[in-house]
């Protein structure tokens, strides 16, 4: 005989079925506590933050635009991003509510500090001018120092 005879095996007991499902159940529990639950918590915090927005709050949108809220409607807010410049964005686009201190720090590093640096450079350049140097004024006038 070339093929050996097959012997019947004993039927598996009912306990091995539940033990086989245990790793899958543990993976779902782990997935819930590591991914789903924290995401639900963040979504709840974001919803509460958006509902608590008030006129005058400093915010950052999803596109990275910083501004102060000037008007609030049901679905949209108006942001003042520069003096006399307003844009309308959806409330859901608001990502971060900035504390007032942080807004002043950003204002200093993005606007005031570079302007102070340019002023120092301009002052040094003016002090280095001598008689006979040719200059162009801010108005575009070409002249010579006398």
The proportion of residues forming helix, as a percent range, comes to 40-55%
Overall strand count: 7
Model regions low in confidence, pLDDT < 50 over at least 5 residues? none
**General form:** elongated
- Strand fraction: 15-25%
Order of helices and strands: HEEEEEHEE
| End-to-end gap | 120 Å
SSE-based structural type: alpha+beta
Number of helices: 2
Name the average pLDDT: 85
Order of the strands making up the biggest sheet: 4-3-2-1-5
Characterize the biggest β-sheet.
Answer: 5 strands, antiparallel
- Rg measurement, Å: 34 Å
What report would you give on this structure?
It contains two helices and seven strands; from the N terminus they run αβββββαββ. With 146 residues, it is an alpha+beta fold. The protein is elongated, with a radius of gyration of 34 Å. The mean pLDDT is 85.
């Amino acid at each position: 005989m070339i093929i050996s005879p097959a012997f019947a095996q004993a039927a598996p007991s009912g306990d091995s079925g539940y033990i086989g499902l245990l790793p899958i159940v543990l993976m779902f529990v782990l997935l819930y506590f590591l991914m789903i639950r924290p995401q639900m918590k963040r979504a709840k915090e974001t919803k509460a933050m958006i509902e608590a927005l008030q006129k005058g709050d400093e915010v950052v949108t999803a596109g990275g635009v910083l501004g102060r809220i000037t008007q609030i409607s049901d679905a949209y807010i108006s942001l003042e991003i520069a003096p006399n410049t307003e844009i309308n964005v959806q409330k859901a686009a608001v990502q971060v509510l900035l504390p007032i201190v942080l807004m002043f720090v950003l204002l200093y590093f993005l606007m005031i500090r570079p302007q102070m640096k340019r002023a120092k450079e301009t002052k040094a350049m003016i002090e280095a001018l001598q008689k006979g140097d040719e200059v162009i004024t801010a108005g575009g006038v070409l002249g010579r120092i006398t």
